[in-house]
Design a protein that fits this description.
Blueprint (H helix, E strand, L loop, with lengths): L9 H30 L4 H25 L2 H23 L1 H10 L3
Helix pairs in contact: 1-2, 1-3, 3-4
């Protein structure tokens, strides 16, 4: 599935893509932070600093989206990326379907 980027306004489309990728990285950082907190590898002070940094990042991303008017572009890119990830996970869970699709396409 292609990623839908606002083609009428390339600047907004590219900025939407960049911010969407930053959000994906932020989500990965959140997951990693949760794992470290649950694993007990962070001190209270480190958890506090990390939490504040991630919240500051959330605020900054939302401010940029509003200021640049790219909220919908970011959502569109995120929806496209989510769809791609869902498709890949489905193929990993159902490899037989993936094999059949590949055979139908002559791959």
């Amino acid at each position: 599935m292609p990623i839908d980027i606002d083609e009428d306004n390339l600047k907004h489309g590219v900025l939407g893509l960049v911010i969407a990728l930053v959000e994906v990285i932020k989500d990965a950082l959140n997951l990693q932070a949760m794992k470290r907190m649950e694993g007990g590898s962070l001190t209270e002070e480190e958890m506090e600093r990390l939490g504040e940094a991630l919240m500051d990042l959330d605020v900054a991303i939302e401010d940029i989206k509003k200021e640049q008017g790219v909220t919908e572009s970011v959502k569109s890119v995120r929806d496209g990326l989510d769809s791609i990830v869902d498709d890949v996970l489905d193929k990993m869970i159902n490899p037989e379907r993936w094999r059949k699709e590949a055979e139908e396409k002559g791959i």
